[in-house]
Amino acid sequence: MPCVNADGTLTPVAERVLRSMHAPGATRTPDEVAREAAVPLYRARASLRELDSAGFVALDGSAYRLTPAGAAKLDAPVPAGR
Predict the structure, then answer these.
(1) Distance CA 52, CA 65 (A)
(2) How do the domains of the chain map onto residue ranges?
(3) In the prediction, which pLDDT does 1 show?
(4) CATH architecture label of 12-73
(5) What is the distance between the alpha carbons of residues 26 and 20, in angstroms, rounded to a whole number?
(6) Distance in angstroms (rounded) separating the CA atoms of residues 26 and 76
(7) pLDDT tens-place string over residues 26-71
C-alpha cells in the first residue's frame, strides 16, 4: 500500500506516521512510531521505508526523523534543530 496517493496527497496512515514524528528534535524508532501512530509495527516499518524513499523522513542511525519535505507535506514548520 503506497503512502502517497496518485494525486500527491498522503494516505491516512502516512499522515499519522508523519504526525507522530513532528516534535522538536524528534527521532523515532519504528516501535515508537507504531505506538504513537496507533498502527501495527509492520505497517509502521513499511510506511517509514516508503516515506524515506519519498524524501519525507530520513533514517538517522536506527531511528527516523522528519525532513523539511515531510514537514511541508503536513503544512507544519520543521522542528528546531533540522
Answers:
(1) 9
(2) 12-73
(3) 53
(4) Orthogonal Bundle (1.10)
(5) 9
(6) 14
(7) 899 999 999 999 999 999 999 999 999 999 999 989 999 999 898 8
Which DSSP string corresponds to 38-49?
Answer: T--HHHHHHHHH
Taking the model in full, what pTM does it have? 0.84
Q: What is the per-residue pLDDT for 51?
A: 94
Pairing of strands 57-60, 63-66: antiparallel
Buried b (16+ CB within 10 A) or exposed e, 36-46: bbebeeebbbb
For 33, the grid coordinates are: 512510531
CA dihedral 5, 41, 28, 22 (to 10 degrees): 40
Q: Which grid coordinates belong to 71?
A: 514537514
Q: How far apart are CA 16 and CA 61, in angstroms?
A: 22
